[in-house]
Amino acid sequence: MMRRLGATGVGITPVGLGCMQFSGSGLVERFYRALDQSTVTSVVGAALDGGITWFDTAEMYGRGRSERALTTALREREVVAGSVTIATKWAPAGRTAASIGRTLDARVASLQGYPIDLHQIHMPYGSLSPVSRQLVEMARLARAGRVGAVGVSNFSARQMEKANALLGSEGVPLASNQVQISLLHRTVERNGVLDTARRLGITLIAYSPLRSGVLTGVFHADPARVRSLPWVRRTMTGLGARGLARTAPLIDELGAIGRAYGVSAAQVALSWLIRFYGETVVVIPGASKPQQAKESAAAMQLDLTDRELARLDDVSRRCGG
């Protein structure tokens, strides 16, 4: 089960592995606890064993620590460079477009010999240069063969359309736009991003596809677990009593379908995403344990019926998705 990354020749599985959790200490610890290298290697190994072929990381994730932890794990698993797909991102905050090229050697060094198959602008704001200049620089690197493909992240429909046109004039397709999508966050259906991506043949990479763990059902089953989470994560994902009550019908439905197939609620939620939206959407759930990566990979084998897809669609909308 492979999908093409936008209009490029790159093939990826509909489920990849998000590597934000590999950032180590620092800002990301406000969301997820730091993992040691042995755990990272086990998580990456479980993803590979499950059939996942690509990994999404970023410069911002620990200033290269996520990139290095990921590729250290790949090296320990003796994964040959070029046999998997790696996506990373340039951080625009306080920088000019010229820094994309200047910092590329640091990305290459952190990736330890693994190529940059997809290089993304992490967000459409914060840079000292306009997005148009950033895209021209990205296109230059792609034409020079220093990066395989060009993507963006958190771009609106209008920004995505303009980026696609500008890159096209430079002879480089816009491969992807990484945005938040889940059964509890379906804004792409209302803001034009999904329709624009389909029309232009751009892949949408869904981050937070499990809404930072809400859709696993573990917090509904044991609300006391919420108190153990970093406060930023609790606040941003609505993991309070009111939020848990509002989303309970969806969690119940995911659980019921999961029990019928002998799988987890999380696997049902991921399967819904990669099937309901067709070829346009792929997902990058994170994992802090090997079992989580294993379950995410197995979601690719779960084929929900049209009736189940429609039922989850309905319950999701009523829960505010």
Automatic annotation (TrEMBL):
Cite the NADP-dependent oxidoreductase domain residue spans from the record.
15-316
Key words, A-Z: Oxidoreductase
Record bears the keyword Chaperone: no
Keyword presence, Oxidoreductase? yes
Q: Which InterPro entries match?
A: AKR, AKR_Detox_Biosynth, NAD(P)_OxRdtase_dom_sf, NADP_OxRdtase_dom
What PANTHER family does the record point to?
Answer: NAD(P)-LINKED OXIDOREDUCTASE SUPERFAMILY PROTEIN (PTHR43364:SF4), NADH-SPECIFIC METHYLGLYOXAL REDUCTASE-RELATED (PTHR43364)
Q: Tell me what this protein is called.
A: Aldo/keto reductase
